[in-house]
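Hey,
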Amino acid sequence: MSVSDLFKPLTLLHGPAMRNRFMMAPLTNQQSEHDGTASEFDQLWIEQLAKSGYALIQTCAATVEAGGIAFERQLGIHSDDHLPGLRRMASSIREGGGLSAVQLHHAGHRADPLLGGIPSPASSDTLPGINAITTEAVERIRDSFITAAKRAQLAGFDGISVHGAFGWILSEFMSPDLNNRKDKYGGSLENRARFTIEVIKGIRRSCGPDFQIGWRLSIERYGLRMEELREITGEIFDQELIDYLDLALWDSAQIVREGKYKGKTMLSVFTELPRKGVRLGAAGKIYSARRAGELLDEGCDFVLIARAGILQRDFPLQVMANPLYDSPKPPVPAEYLRKGGLSERFISSLRGWQTFVKPGSP
């Protein structure tokens, strides 16, 4: 395929089609108010993205419960008080011609007590002195994901993305290292995946046939097993439970180093699965038009732009204008980001990434 194929539309199982193959990845930016309300900085960020040519824009991770918070100034969707700001964000994206999704998030055992978070581990031996959450608490959090999705729909978003990556609660429950429960949410792979499946199915029942559901999955760290995740993903594809899989890789070209799939790219382990009408995209060091085009050749239906979209907000428009476009590479001076329109709150968050803002950059 050529780079021009990135600008072909892509139908989804539910709701409108994507106008091209570029999706904006959900990016933690810590710009919101302390109560989770979308700030003027959040709105400016979304307004910039809305004018940048993406087919679908995901918000940063939004808390489905106040106790599920992981980051200071994290966006919230756990209260109706958040609706006005969310409506404005959805409206900006729609006016720019793109589709919109809220990423739904609960930090699980990594919820931060200093921010009002309530650590909610799957197992009693994950955190010293903190017992595993009860079956009833799991079901409550499940219902909070579903309620938050309905809230996103009321705010005017085209869909949501369920955050099942990076050891957050759904990923945690999937991990045999972090989940040693004896109830229906622990033990077998089917039981460990039950939390995720119930969230997804509950959102579909609550939000109806025109609402789009994405699922973000990572396969590295936190005791996750690639073979197990491949099996569950295959079942989700076969049942067409989601509209798209957002495969969160640290590097989209990464090679499996051990086990059954040693020598293959991590991406290929999932692109080789029959996916019926479900679409698959990947994130991970996509800095150039060429790499984005290569990912379509490697079996992706779309690409997720993350770091390159921070460095150059309108990455899709740059690629459209120049099929040889190559993004700047981090780290960059903070002043470069300021000139690009990022808020000081966002820049402060990026300093924690170690490799994004040039050390010592004022």
